[in-house]
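Hi everyone, sorry if this is the wrong subforum. Our group has a chain we'd like a structural model of before ordering constructs, and none of us has done structure prediction before. Sequence below.
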Amino acid sequence: MKYVIASDIHGNARYASLLIEAFRAEGAEQLILLGDIYNPGPRNPVTSEYAPLEVANMLNALADKLTVVKGNCDSEVDLLISEFGFTDSCCIFDGGVKITLTHGHVYNKDNIPLSCGDALIYGHFHEGSISRVKTIDGKSVLIANAGSVSLPKGGSAHSYLVLEDGTLTLKELMSRKEIASEHIKI
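Answer:
Right subforum, don't worry. Here is the predicted structure as tokens:
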């Protein structure tokens, strides 16, 4: 199965639309969103493209293809405009490899859950990256941050991840060009 994994839309209709275009162009079967879907949060600017109801309508049209992880800016009231649910975290299995998906405000490269499996993918920090770390038991774990669809920080690109056949690729949203990639299989 091919997945597009993205994070931190923060209610921006323009970038939500670009993400959906990328999802379709990639030919992915599932779109995984790693939180902060509608609310801009207290430290982020509210732009003229802030339109959470419009974002909800776009995502509701894809409800059967969505897995949505709750972020620190998501709340129960978001369910009122969503035709899909939010989960605190989830795992997927790709070719016998366990991948944990979370928002990143609790579990991230600095706090890896013991049961994360072979990879931990998150958002929250708005800077896309892929790297490997050694956990306490010496096992190599792939760590990836999807970055932010709408509000990249630290000079990083508007980005998303593609997972297919054991390869995770970080891509720039507008051009869909590869920024970095890594095989998850160890």
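For your construct planning: The mean pLDDT is 93. The chain is about 10% helix and 30% strand.
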